C-alpha cells in the first residue's frame, strides 16, 4: 500500500489502487474508523420472534415480499420472493437462526450481474431455509454450523441489484414464503 500513497496519508487512494472499487474503499475505511474509535467492530443482534427467526438487519425494508415493479427492468408485475433491507457498505450480515450452511458463493460467477450474486443459504432443519443475497462477500463456507447472530456475509450489491441491500428469503418445505411474519414484521 505504501507505493500507492498510504505513506503520504492518502489511504483511500492506496486502497482504491489495490482493487479499483469505491464500495470496497468505503468498507475498509468504515472498519478502520470503527476499530480506531471503538476498539472493535460491533454487530447488532436482533432478538428472535416467536418463530425463532430474528430480523437479519435493523435496516429499513426497501421492498417487501410480493408483486412489484422490477427495479432493474421497470416492468410491472414482477414477483419479489423475499424482503429487501437497506444496509451499508461493510455492514456485517448475521444469521437469522441457527443452522448449517448449504451454499456460500456466487449464484453465477460467469454472469455476476444476474440473480442473487453472492449469497448464503442456510438449512435450519424442519423444512426451513434462509437466503442472504447480493452480499459483497461471504464469511462462511458450506458445512459450517452457525448460531443466530453469527456473521455469514457482508452487505453488498452483487447480482441483479440496483444498490446496497440485503435480499432475505425464507423457504418452508422448498417454497418461498413471506418472511415478514416469521421475523416479527
TrEMBL record:
GO terms for molecular function: metalloendopeptidase activity. Pfam families: Peptidase_M23. InterPro entries: Cell_wall_metabolism_enzyme, Dup_hybrid_motif, M23ase_b-sheet_dom. CDD domains: M23_peptidase. Residues 79-179 form the M23ase beta-sheet core domain. Transmembrane segments: none annotated. This is M23ase beta-sheet core domain-containing protein. The lineage of its organism: Bacteria, Bacillati, Bacillota, Bacilli, Bacillales.
